[in-house]
Specification:
signal, globular, 21% strand, 2 domains, alpha/beta, Rossmann fold, GFO_IDH_MocA-like_dom, 364 residues, six-stranded parallel β-sheet, NAD(P)-bd_dom_sf, Dihydrodipicolinate Reductase, domain 2
Length: 364
Protein backbone atom coordinates (compact mmCIF):
# COMPACT_ATOMS: atom_id res chain seq x y z
CA UNK A 1 0.00 0.00 0.00
CA UNK A 2 1.39 3.35 -0.98
CA UNK A 3 1.38 5.96 1.73
CA UNK A 4 1.12 9.64 1.06
CA UNK A 5 4.86 10.22 1.26
CA UNK A 6 5.47 7.57 -1.38
CA UNK A 7 2.81 9.15 -3.55
CA UNK A 8 4.47 12.55 -3.26
CA UNK A 9 7.84 11.14 -4.19
CA UNK A 10 6.42 9.23 -7.12
CA UNK A 11 4.83 12.37 -8.51
CA UNK A 12 7.82 14.64 -7.79
CA UNK A 13 5.88 16.58 -5.18
CA UNK A 14 8.25 15.80 -2.32
CA UNK A 15 10.48 18.70 -3.31
CA UNK A 16 7.54 21.08 -3.37
CA UNK A 17 6.40 19.89 0.03
CA UNK A 18 9.73 20.51 1.72
CA UNK A 19 10.95 23.80 0.30
CA UNK A 20 10.29 27.26 1.60
CA UNK A 21 7.31 29.12 0.15
CA UNK A 22 9.01 31.70 -2.07
CA UNK A 23 10.40 31.28 -4.57
CA UNK A 24 8.77 27.90 -5.15
CA UNK A 25 10.70 27.08 -8.34
CA UNK A 26 13.70 29.33 -7.78
CA UNK A 27 15.65 27.65 -10.55
CA UNK A 28 13.44 29.33 -13.13
CA UNK A 29 11.92 32.78 -12.72
CA UNK A 30 9.77 33.59 -15.75
CA UNK A 31 9.13 37.23 -16.55
CA UNK A 32 5.54 36.65 -17.68
CA UNK A 33 2.63 37.25 -15.34
CA UNK A 34 -0.46 35.11 -15.63
CA UNK A 35 -3.91 36.67 -15.61
CA UNK A 36 -6.51 35.41 -13.16
CA UNK A 37 -10.27 35.87 -12.91
CA UNK A 38 -11.94 35.45 -9.52
CA UNK A 39 -15.24 33.61 -9.80
CA UNK A 40 -17.43 34.52 -6.83
CA UNK A 41 -16.91 37.86 -5.11
CA UNK A 42 -17.84 37.01 -1.55
CA UNK A 43 -15.91 37.78 1.59
CA UNK A 44 -12.86 35.60 0.92
CA UNK A 45 -12.32 36.89 -2.62
CA UNK A 46 -12.95 40.47 -1.53
CA UNK A 47 -11.00 40.59 1.70
CA UNK A 48 -8.21 38.09 1.08
CA UNK A 49 -7.60 36.96 -2.49
CA UNK A 50 -7.94 40.27 -4.30
CA UNK A 51 -5.65 42.15 -1.85
CA UNK A 52 -3.17 39.25 -2.04
CA UNK A 53 -3.07 39.60 -5.82
CA UNK A 54 -1.70 43.09 -5.31
CA UNK A 55 1.39 41.44 -3.78
CA UNK A 56 1.96 38.55 -6.18
CA UNK A 57 4.90 38.42 -8.55
CA UNK A 58 3.76 35.87 -11.14
CA UNK A 59 -0.01 36.31 -11.39
CA UNK A 60 -2.32 39.31 -11.38
CA UNK A 61 -6.03 40.08 -11.16
CA UNK A 62 -7.45 40.78 -14.62
CA UNK A 63 -11.04 39.55 -14.51
CA UNK A 64 -14.09 38.78 -12.40
CA UNK A 65 -17.06 36.44 -12.70
CA UNK A 66 -20.05 37.48 -10.61
CA UNK A 67 -23.80 37.15 -10.35
CA UNK A 68 -24.03 40.51 -8.56
CA UNK A 69 -24.01 43.37 -11.10
CA UNK A 70 -23.81 45.96 -8.33
CA UNK A 71 -20.32 44.70 -7.42
CA UNK A 72 -18.90 45.32 -10.89
CA UNK A 73 -18.25 49.08 -10.68
CA UNK A 74 -16.70 48.72 -7.24
CA UNK A 75 -14.24 46.11 -8.46
CA UNK A 76 -13.52 47.95 -11.69
CA UNK A 77 -12.77 51.14 -9.83
CA UNK A 78 -10.54 49.45 -7.25
CA UNK A 79 -8.66 47.03 -9.52
CA UNK A 80 -8.88 48.65 -12.97
CA UNK A 81 -10.60 45.65 -14.55
CA UNK A 82 -11.47 46.00 -18.23
CA UNK A 83 -15.07 45.71 -19.41
CA UNK A 84 -14.16 42.80 -21.65
CA UNK A 85 -12.79 40.85 -18.66
CA UNK A 86 -16.08 40.86 -16.74
CA UNK A 87 -18.36 37.82 -16.89
CA UNK A 88 -21.43 36.47 -15.16
CA UNK A 89 -22.08 32.81 -14.45
CA UNK A 90 -24.01 32.32 -17.69
CA UNK A 91 -21.36 33.94 -19.90
CA UNK A 92 -18.44 32.11 -18.26
CA UNK A 93 -17.89 29.81 -21.30
CA UNK A 94 -17.02 32.94 -23.34
CA UNK A 95 -13.86 33.30 -21.25
CA UNK A 96 -12.39 30.67 -23.57
CA UNK A 97 -11.92 33.44 -26.14
CA UNK A 98 -10.06 35.77 -23.78
CA UNK A 99 -6.25 35.42 -23.99
CA UNK A 100 -5.76 37.79 -21.03
CA UNK A 101 -7.26 35.26 -18.61
CA UNK A 102 -5.12 32.20 -17.91
CA UNK A 103 -6.64 31.03 -14.62
CA UNK A 104 -10.11 30.98 -13.09
CA UNK A 105 -10.22 30.80 -9.28
CA UNK A 106 -13.45 29.20 -7.99
CA UNK A 107 -14.44 30.99 -4.78
CA UNK A 108 -18.14 30.16 -4.54
CA UNK A 109 -19.83 28.12 -1.80
CA UNK A 110 -18.79 24.46 -1.92
CA UNK A 111 -21.95 23.14 -3.59
CA UNK A 112 -21.14 25.22 -6.69
CA UNK A 113 -17.46 24.29 -7.01
CA UNK A 114 -17.91 21.34 -9.35
CA UNK A 115 -20.20 23.18 -11.76
CA UNK A 116 -17.93 26.15 -12.30
CA UNK A 117 -14.61 24.31 -12.05
CA UNK A 118 -15.71 22.04 -14.88
CA UNK A 119 -16.94 25.01 -16.91
CA UNK A 120 -13.62 26.81 -16.44
CA UNK A 121 -11.66 23.70 -17.43
CA UNK A 122 -13.82 23.24 -20.50
CA UNK A 123 -12.98 26.82 -21.42
CA UNK A 124 -9.35 25.61 -21.36
CA UNK A 125 -8.37 27.79 -18.41
CA UNK A 126 -6.28 26.57 -15.50
CA UNK A 127 -8.38 26.08 -12.38
CA UNK A 128 -7.68 27.16 -8.82
CA UNK A 129 -10.48 25.82 -6.62
CA UNK A 130 -11.09 26.79 -3.02
CA UNK A 131 -11.38 24.10 -0.39
CA UNK A 132 -13.40 22.08 0.41
CA UNK A 133 -12.95 20.94 -3.19
CA UNK A 134 -16.52 19.72 -3.72
CA UNK A 135 -19.48 18.03 -2.06
CA UNK A 136 -18.58 14.42 -2.90
CA UNK A 137 -15.70 12.28 -4.12
CA UNK A 138 -17.61 11.84 -7.36
CA UNK A 139 -17.71 15.61 -7.90
CA UNK A 140 -13.98 15.81 -7.17
CA UNK A 141 -13.37 13.13 -9.77
CA UNK A 142 -15.40 15.09 -12.32
CA UNK A 143 -13.31 18.21 -11.71
CA UNK A 144 -10.05 16.27 -12.02
CA UNK A 145 -11.25 14.56 -15.20
CA UNK A 146 -12.29 17.86 -16.82
CA UNK A 147 -8.90 19.43 -16.08
CA UNK A 148 -7.04 16.37 -17.34
CA UNK A 149 -9.11 16.20 -20.53
CA UNK A 150 -8.46 19.87 -21.26
CA UNK A 151 -4.78 19.65 -20.26
CA UNK A 152 -5.04 22.43 -17.69
CA UNK A 153 -3.63 22.60 -14.15
CA UNK A 154 -5.83 22.11 -11.11
CA UNK A 155 -4.70 23.53 -7.77
CA UNK A 156 -6.77 23.35 -4.57
CA UNK A 157 -6.57 26.34 -2.24
CA UNK A 158 -4.75 24.70 0.66
CA UNK A 159 -2.93 27.86 1.65
CA UNK A 160 -1.46 26.20 4.75
CA UNK A 161 0.65 23.83 2.65
CA UNK A 162 2.40 26.92 1.26
CA UNK A 163 3.05 28.44 4.70
CA UNK A 164 6.58 28.22 6.13
CA UNK A 165 5.90 26.65 9.54
CA UNK A 166 3.43 24.20 8.04
CA UNK A 167 6.07 23.16 5.53
CA UNK A 168 8.38 22.44 8.47
CA UNK A 169 5.74 20.11 9.93
CA UNK A 170 5.41 18.41 6.54
CA UNK A 171 9.19 17.95 6.37
CA UNK A 172 9.36 16.54 9.91
CA UNK A 173 6.85 13.83 8.97
CA UNK A 174 9.59 12.55 6.68
CA UNK A 175 12.76 13.31 8.67
CA UNK A 176 11.32 12.44 12.14
CA UNK A 177 13.59 14.64 14.27
CA UNK A 178 11.64 13.62 17.41
CA UNK A 179 11.52 9.93 16.66
CA UNK A 180 8.75 7.72 15.38
CA UNK A 181 5.38 9.42 15.10
CA UNK A 182 2.80 8.08 17.54
CA UNK A 183 -0.31 10.24 17.38
CA UNK A 184 -1.73 13.56 16.26
CA UNK A 185 -4.34 15.76 17.92
CA UNK A 186 -5.88 18.71 16.11
CA UNK A 187 -8.96 20.89 16.49
CA UNK A 188 -10.33 23.80 14.49
CA UNK A 189 -13.42 25.94 14.69
CA UNK A 190 -15.16 29.13 15.64
CA UNK A 191 -18.53 30.08 17.04
CA UNK A 192 -20.89 30.77 14.18
CA UNK A 193 -24.07 32.80 14.40
CA UNK A 194 -27.35 33.03 12.56
CA UNK A 195 -25.72 35.10 9.81
CA UNK A 196 -23.65 32.09 8.70
CA UNK A 197 -25.67 31.68 5.50
CA UNK A 198 -24.81 28.57 3.45
CA UNK A 199 -22.40 27.39 6.16
CA UNK A 200 -25.44 26.41 8.23
CA UNK A 201 -26.94 24.24 5.48
CA UNK A 202 -25.66 20.70 5.02
CA UNK A 203 -27.05 20.57 1.49
CA UNK A 204 -24.76 23.44 0.46
CA UNK A 205 -21.51 22.30 2.06
CA UNK A 206 -22.33 23.69 5.48
CA UNK A 207 -21.84 22.25 8.92
CA UNK A 208 -18.51 22.28 10.68
CA UNK A 209 -17.25 19.03 9.14
CA UNK A 210 -17.79 20.22 5.56
CA UNK A 211 -16.72 23.83 5.92
CA UNK A 212 -13.94 23.57 8.51
CA UNK A 213 -13.24 19.83 8.49
CA UNK A 214 -10.62 19.91 5.77
CA UNK A 215 -8.27 21.92 8.02
CA UNK A 216 -7.76 19.26 10.71
CA UNK A 217 -8.18 16.41 8.21
CA UNK A 218 -5.51 17.79 5.89
CA UNK A 219 -3.31 18.56 8.90
CA UNK A 220 -3.53 14.94 10.07
CA UNK A 221 -2.45 13.80 6.64
CA UNK A 222 0.45 16.22 6.14
CA UNK A 223 1.63 15.86 9.76
CA UNK A 224 1.96 12.08 9.37
CA UNK A 225 2.87 11.95 5.68
CA UNK A 226 0.44 9.04 5.44
CA UNK A 227 -3.07 8.24 4.26
CA UNK A 228 -5.57 7.00 6.88
CA UNK A 229 -7.01 3.51 6.60
CA UNK A 230 -10.13 3.86 8.76
CA UNK A 231 -12.25 6.35 10.66
CA UNK A 232 -14.92 6.67 13.32
CA UNK A 233 -16.90 9.83 14.01
CA UNK A 234 -19.70 11.27 16.13
CA UNK A 235 -21.71 14.46 15.71
CA UNK A 236 -23.26 16.91 18.15
CA UNK A 237 -25.54 19.88 17.54
CA UNK A 238 -26.10 22.15 20.52
CA UNK A 239 -28.26 24.63 18.57
CA UNK A 240 -30.49 22.48 16.29
CA UNK A 241 -32.62 25.46 15.32
CA UNK A 242 -29.59 27.03 13.63
CA UNK A 243 -28.50 24.19 11.35
CA UNK A 244 -30.31 22.82 8.29
CA UNK A 245 -30.31 19.56 6.34
CA UNK A 246 -28.28 17.54 8.80
CA UNK A 247 -25.40 19.98 9.08
CA UNK A 248 -23.59 19.05 12.32
CA UNK A 249 -22.39 21.81 14.62
CA UNK A 250 -19.58 19.68 16.09
CA UNK A 251 -17.86 16.56 14.81
CA UNK A 252 -15.38 14.37 16.69
CA UNK A 253 -13.37 11.98 14.54
CA UNK A 254 -10.61 9.45 15.07
CA UNK A 255 -8.43 8.24 12.23
CA UNK A 256 -6.18 5.19 12.07
CA UNK A 257 -3.03 5.40 9.94
CA UNK A 258 -0.50 2.74 8.96
CA UNK A 259 2.23 1.80 11.45
CA UNK A 260 -0.12 2.13 14.42
CA UNK A 261 -0.31 5.93 14.19
CA UNK A 262 -3.61 7.45 15.33
CA UNK A 263 -5.13 10.90 15.04
CA UNK A 264 -7.85 12.56 17.08
CA UNK A 265 -9.75 15.55 15.73
CA UNK A 266 -12.58 17.89 16.50
CA UNK A 267 -14.15 20.50 14.26
CA UNK A 268 -16.69 22.89 15.69
CA UNK A 269 -18.99 25.82 15.06
CA UNK A 270 -19.62 26.13 18.80
CA UNK A 271 -16.34 27.62 20.08
CA UNK A 272 -13.00 29.02 19.01
CA UNK A 273 -10.16 26.50 18.79
CA UNK A 274 -7.09 26.21 16.58
CA UNK A 275 -4.17 23.84 17.23
CA UNK A 276 -2.16 20.94 15.82
CA UNK A 277 -0.04 18.75 18.10
CA UNK A 278 2.18 15.87 17.01
CA UNK A 279 3.43 13.37 19.59
CA UNK A 280 6.48 11.25 18.83
CA UNK A 281 8.57 8.66 20.63
CA UNK A 282 11.23 11.20 21.65
CA UNK A 283 9.25 14.43 22.00
CA UNK A 284 6.49 16.50 20.49
CA UNK A 285 5.77 19.68 18.57
CA UNK A 286 2.77 21.85 17.84
CA UNK A 287 1.39 24.77 15.91
CA UNK A 288 -1.07 27.05 17.68
CA UNK A 289 -2.74 28.54 15.77
CA UNK A 290 -2.17 26.19 12.86
CA UNK A 291 -4.68 27.50 10.28
CA UNK A 292 -5.11 31.23 10.86
CA UNK A 293 -4.63 33.69 8.02
CA UNK A 294 -1.60 35.03 9.88
CA UNK A 295 0.38 34.36 13.02
CA UNK A 296 0.83 30.60 12.51
CA UNK A 297 3.43 29.67 15.11
CA UNK A 298 4.58 26.79 17.24
CA UNK A 299 7.01 25.19 19.63
CA UNK A 300 8.77 21.91 20.32
CA UNK A 301 9.30 19.82 23.43
CA UNK A 302 13.00 20.70 23.45
CA UNK A 303 12.37 24.44 23.46
CA UNK A 304 12.56 25.39 19.79
CA UNK A 305 10.25 28.14 18.55
CA UNK A 306 8.54 28.20 15.18
CA UNK A 307 8.12 31.95 14.87
CA UNK A 308 5.24 33.39 12.82
CA UNK A 309 6.01 34.31 9.25
CA UNK A 310 5.37 37.91 8.28
CA UNK A 311 3.82 37.00 4.95
CA UNK A 312 0.59 36.85 3.00
CA UNK A 313 -0.41 33.19 2.74
CA UNK A 314 -2.75 33.69 -0.19
CA UNK A 315 -0.11 35.60 -2.18
CA UNK A 316 2.43 32.83 -1.59
CA UNK A 317 -0.13 30.18 -2.54
CA UNK A 318 -1.12 31.86 -5.80
CA UNK A 319 2.47 32.65 -6.77
CA UNK A 320 3.51 29.06 -6.13
CA UNK A 321 0.64 27.77 -8.26
CA UNK A 322 1.33 30.32 -10.99
CA UNK A 323 4.96 29.23 -11.13
CA UNK A 324 3.90 25.61 -11.45
CA UNK A 325 1.96 26.60 -14.56
CA UNK A 326 4.68 28.80 -16.03
CA UNK A 327 7.39 26.19 -15.42
CA UNK A 328 5.31 23.12 -16.23
CA UNK A 329 5.80 21.65 -12.76
CA UNK A 330 3.36 19.88 -10.39
CA UNK A 331 1.33 22.03 -8.03
CA UNK A 332 1.76 21.59 -4.28
CA UNK A 333 -1.90 20.72 -3.67
CA UNK A 334 -3.41 19.03 -6.74
CA UNK A 335 -6.94 17.72 -7.11
CA UNK A 336 -6.15 14.40 -5.43
CA UNK A 337 -5.47 16.34 -2.21
CA UNK A 338 -8.97 17.74 -2.23
CA UNK A 339 -10.51 14.40 -3.16
CA UNK A 340 -8.80 12.55 -0.33
CA UNK A 341 -10.06 15.05 2.24
CA UNK A 342 -13.61 14.90 0.88
CA UNK A 343 -13.50 11.11 1.09
CA UNK A 344 -12.78 11.49 4.81
CA UNK A 345 -15.51 14.13 5.23
CA UNK A 346 -18.03 11.79 3.60
CA UNK A 347 -16.85 8.91 5.79
CA UNK A 348 -17.19 11.06 8.92
CA UNK A 349 -20.75 11.96 8.00
CA UNK A 350 -21.60 8.31 7.37
CA UNK A 351 -19.98 7.13 10.58
CA UNK A 352 -21.73 9.77 12.64
CA UNK A 353 -25.11 8.90 11.14
CA UNK A 354 -24.53 5.27 12.09
CA UNK A 355 -23.58 5.64 15.73
CA UNK A 356 -19.83 5.94 15.24
CA UNK A 357 -19.52 2.95 12.92
CA UNK A 358 -15.97 2.23 11.77
CA UNK A 359 -15.49 3.13 8.10
CA UNK A 360 -12.71 1.61 6.03
CA UNK A 361 -11.16 4.17 3.69
CA UNK A 362 -10.32 3.56 0.05
CA UNK A 363 -6.73 4.25 -0.91
CA UNK A 364 -6.62 6.61 -3.88
Amino acid sequence: MKNRRTFLKNTTLALAATTLPLPYFACSKPQKKLGIALLGLGGYATNNLAPALMQTEYIELRGIVTGSPEKIPVWQDKYDIKDENIYNYDTLPEIANNPEIDVVYIVTPTFLHKKYAVMAANAVKHVFCEKPMAMTVEECEEIIAACDQNKVKLAIGYRMQHEENTQTIIKWADTKPYGTLENVHTEAGFRIGSSGGWRLDGAKGGGAIYDMGVYPINAMRYATGLEPVSLTATHETERPDLFLNGAPEITYFDLEFPNGITAKGRVTYADNVNFLKVNCADGNYELSPFQSYNGVQGSTSDGKTLAPCNCNQQAIQMDDDALSILNGKPVIAPGIEGLRDIQIVEAALESGRNGGKKIELKQY
